[in-house]
Amino acid sequence: MGNIFGKKLTAQLGSDGYSLGLWLAVISAFGFSFKAILIKLAYALPQQVPVDAVTLLTLRMLFALPFFLLLLWFSGNHGQSLSRKDLAVVIILGCVGYYGASIFDFLGLNYVSAGLERMILFSFPLLTLFFDAIFCRRKIRGYEWLAVLICYSGISLAFVHDMNVAGVQEEIWVGGGFIFLSALCYAFYLSGGRHLIATYGSSRFACSALIISTAATLAHFGVSHPLNALSQPWKIYLLALVMATFSTVMPVLALAAAIKRIGSAPAALIGSLGPILTIGLGWWLLDESISPIQIGGALLVVSGVILVGNGGRKSAASCIVEKTQE
Q: 157-171 as b/e, with b when 16 or more CB fall inside 10 Å?
């Protein structure tokens, strides 16, 4: 009976590309949301010397590196080679953008809840507006300022929630600052890489930048840690492996496949489930508290991102066209 049901479900999803795309978008949102949970679980694992942010990030990138190399090899079989100028841009974006976003995120989660982390990170589309205003030389529109106001009002409510439950309130400001820097770096990475995505494709650009960020992570570890710091309990290895596959490689591939089937707008809309999913997972797996003010803040953040995503789609497309014509 189970086999018959599974075959019917598989056949239905295979024949309905849009339904498959919706499920892929949900899986992607869940994978991205689960990353903060895995990091918090690793930090909380009892051992004589708890794993630190740099070591955990290094393990995650080492486990993910073979997948990046394999995907780059497949995506690089067709298309033009990177020019020296574009390679330099990829190196800058990989180091400053993706590596910076990763290390600040891992550092920030030492201090704040997974729910607050996801809400601050989820503001990156709004931060991308400011980089687009610089790179595309265009004014930020009225509805975009409104979206910024709505989103950061929601983050303020989330701060109030964490302040009420935190033992040391100064840590919330420190952690929140790190997470904001992470969102800023990721917004720079996305905005600066748009013309490269249009030229070389999203998979090839992302894999190239991720490989560069892996090299930056290894360099950071090499100058700040002894090699034996990588000797960790098997549970840390398992969490890092799940983080690399389920919360790094898989959601990137699932999102790309979802966009191909349903388009970027519906995929982004489903991705807005991220903060809500993280809050729920944090309550379930980390025993983090949930309050009405936190839920209200999450809904404001999601509303602000949806507003700017819907209203700014045409502007973002024109920005890409203008950059590719230069």
A: bbbebbeeebeeeee
Residue 138 main-chain phi, psi, to 5 deg: -125, 155
Burial of 278 (0-12, 13-18, 19+ CB in 10 A): buried
pLDDT in tens, 33-58: 899 999 999 999 988 889 999 999 99
SS3 content of the chain, % helix, strand, coil (to 5): 85, 0, 15
Q: In the predicted model, is pLDDT for residue 6 greater than 50?
A: no
pLDDT digit string (tens) for 7-40? Answer: 544 444 444 577 888 888 889 889 988 999 999 9
Task: Read off the pTM.
Answer: 0.84
237 to 38, 108, 217, 222, 240: CA distances (angstroms): 11, 21, 17, 19, 5
Nearest-angstrom CA–CA distance, 308 and 130: 12
Residue with tokens 């700040």: 224
Taking the C-alpha atoms of residue 221 and residue 325, their distance in angstroms, rounded to an integer, is: 40
In sequence order, the 6+-apart residues with CB closer than 8 A to the CB of 215 are 94
Residue with tokens 């800023």: 184
Distance CA 225, CA 20 (A): 44
> Which residues 6+ apart lie within 8 Å of 272 measured at CB?
29, 122, 302, 305, 306
Q: What pLDDT digit, counting tens, does each position of 56-102 carry?
A: 999 999 999 999 888 888 776 555 677 888 889 899 999 998 899 99
Q: What is the mean pLDDT of residues 156-162?
A: 88
Q: Count CB-CB contacts under 10 A for residue 2.
A: 6
Q: Minimal CA–CA distance to 144: which of 320, 310, 318, 319?
A: 310
